[in-house]
Specification:
heterodimer; A: 245 residues; alpha/beta; Glutaconate Coenzyme A-transferase; ten-stranded mixed β-sheet; two-stranded antiparallel ribbon; 7 helices; 14 strands; B: 308 residues; nine-stranded mixed β-sheet; three-stranded antiparallel β-sheet; 12 helices; 19% strand; globular
């Protein structure tokens, strides 16, 4: 079985969740990755959904982040005031998993508009909980498809803040979590330097650094060492296909 | 609150409740986070041709896409604008692009905080969000204040006071005590923030059923103005334990709503073309309904004890 781009992202993101106890799960790729992780490398993982569900054990992969399958068998259902206040803002979420249409070198994420806010060429869904997840989760993992359209030098809108403003100024508030620590795409794994700039830390199977550079809108920095991510084994691919079927 | 002065019952037909409690130009919140979304009430609002509404909801969802397409609203307050797991809300996107729908955009916690401030009569609600985001630069209602305790700045949002909140729930009694289970989202705060509250429920139960399990009460009758009984009233969203989310309809909506003419045909058939929710449910047909019914998975019961 040859893995698709999405399957490479889901498998690598699930592997990154090994050892994690609490993850705030967004819709789409994060949902698939977190559910795969709980079924494989992180059986102790508590899946937390913004609808107010803690410790979900869904029998099926839900279409929406609010689904009756998330509730049946869960550890707790809470009001959203409790979830966003006491749990997320209270610092009790270890990893926030987010997707985005655009990302810049500082890990700023755009899920709001392509083009200008008042006259967008593409209107995207907006923040949902992403803005406060990016600020309050103890760290953030980003999963997304990579191309020159998504890895951009100048981001059109900052929905969810990364390490610095797009012009390189500022930093994170003293109370905030560590921000993005890993970005996973179909091409590579990225970490962030001490100054908050993204750097290439690992390559997906069959990808070279030139392919990464060709799909990045700025000169991508290299981490001190470069890992080669494993090709997902057949059992993992089969599990992904069962999940997203 | 209100109710029949003789019998005390708050039960009334949904059409009457909308006629009495919702007026042109009102701010309306039909809340329910993916779960318990009162499509029945939204369709009644469309049939009664309300105009100039401000619609507030974290996720406008198909329910507001339909109301915007029907011309009910000119303003939208929200935090996530999409068809979950599918894509865009085409009618709302078209209305924004045409300039006929103004938007006021927050994050989820911002909307949660707006209802919380409204419920508690606070002038604003502080939250740890928006620092380093562009959201505050496009929404002047997101502001910052200095904490009088440590001198640090924090983002604040204003209270939201809907004229009417409509919530759907599994059950209620005639006095308006409402019980819900599963995802409860922002329903309690949205109702407490509102001037008037309509509860639409799957089933009417005896008051003794409610009083046997007070922990499950989402809203006590003192804050509920009207109780309307509409089985399947949240379809195509879901009611935990009663019926599943109709994911097929959420996917079908993408094609239905892509062209204005097709969407109007849908409204003509499924909203204007039926007199009530009961007719809509009948038109869905027994096979569709059966496919959405879950197998039972009852909770255990707890013992509250009897004290003398």
């Amino acid at each position: 079985m040859t893995p698709s781009s999405d399957e490479l992202i889901i498998a690598a993101a699930a592997a990154e969740l090994a050892g994690v106890r609490t993850v705030f799960v967004g819709i789409g790729l994060p949902n698939a990755a977190a559910n795969l992780a709980r079924r494989t490398v992180a059986p102790q993982l508590e899946l937390i959904y913004e609808a107010g569900v803690i410790g979900a054990r869904p029998a099926r992969l839900p279409d929406s982040i609010g689904d009756p399958a998330l509730v049946s068998g869960a550890a707790a259902t809470l009001s959203m005031r409790d979830l966003f206040g006491g749990f997320l803002q209270g610092g009790r979420i270890e990893v926030g998993m987010l997707g985005a249409a655009q990302i810049d070198r500082w890990g700023n994420l755009n899920t709001t508009v392509i083009g200008s806010y008042d006259r967008p060429s593409v209107r995207l869904p907006g923040s949902g909980g992403a803005c406060e997840i990016a600020l309050n989760a103890r760290r953030v993992m980003v999963v997304m498809n990579q191309s020159l359209r998504s890895f951009v030098d100048q981001i059109d809108f900052v929905t969810s803040p990364g390490h610095r403003r797009p012009d390189g100024s500022g930093g994170r508030p003293s109370w905030a979590g560590a921000g993005p620590t890993a970005v996973i795409t179909q091409l590579a794994l990225y970490h962030f330097g001490l100054d908050g700039e993204m750097e290439l830390a690992g390559l997906q199977p069959g990808v070279d650094a030139a392919a990464v550079d060709a799909a990045t809108g700025w000169p991508m920095r290299r981490a001190a060492s470069l890992a080669l991510l494993p090709r997902p084994v057949e059992a993992i691919l089969a599990e992904i296909r069962r999940l997203v079927a | 609150m209100s109710g029949d002065p003789v019998t005390g019952t708050k039960v009334m037909p949904l059409a009457a409740a909308i006629a009495v409690h919702l007026h042109d130009g009102d701010t309306l919140a039909i809340e329910g986070f993916t779960h318990l979304i009162s499509f029945a009430a939204a369709h009644e609002v469309i049939r009664q041709r309300r105009r100039g509404l401000t619609l507030a909801r974290l996720t406008p969802d198909l329910v507001y896409d339909q109301m915007v397409a029907a011309g009910c609203a000119d303003r939208l307050i929200f935090s996530w604008l999409g068809n979950p797991g599918v894509g865009s809300l085409h009618a709302i996107r078209r209305a924004i692009e045409a300039g006929s729908l103004a938007i006021e955009e927050y994050s989820h916690h911002g909307m949660v905080a707006r209802y919380a401030a409204g419920a508690s009569r606070l002038p604003f609600f502080p939250l740890r969000s928006y620092d380093g985001s562009d959201l505050a630069s496009v929404n002047p209602a997101i502001r910052r204040v200095m904490s009088p305790y440590d001198g640090e700045e924090i983002a604040v949002v204003p209270p939201l006071h809907p004229d009417l909140a409509i919530i759907h729930a599994q059950r209620a009694d005639v006095t308006g005590n409402v019980q819900a289970w599963g995802i409860v989202g922002v329903q309690r705060d949205a109702a407490l923030a509102a001037k008037r509250v309509i509860a639409v429920v799957e089933e009417l139960v005896d008051e003794s059923v409610i009083r046997s399990d007070p922990d499950r009460t989402l809203l006590p009758g003192m804050v509920v103005d009207a109780v309307c009984v509409e089985p399947w009233g949240a379809h195509p969203s879901f009611a935990q334990g009663h019926y599943d989310r109709d994911n097929r309809f959420y996917r079908d909506w993408d094609a239905i709503s892509r062209e204005p003419a097709g969407l109007q045909r849908w409204l003509d058939q499924w909203v204007h073309g039926v007199a009530s929710r009961a007719e809509y449910v009948e038109r869905l047909g027994p096979d569709r309904l059966a496919s959405l019914r879950p197998a039972p998975r009852p909770s255990g019961s707890v013992d509250y004890g009897s004290y003398r």
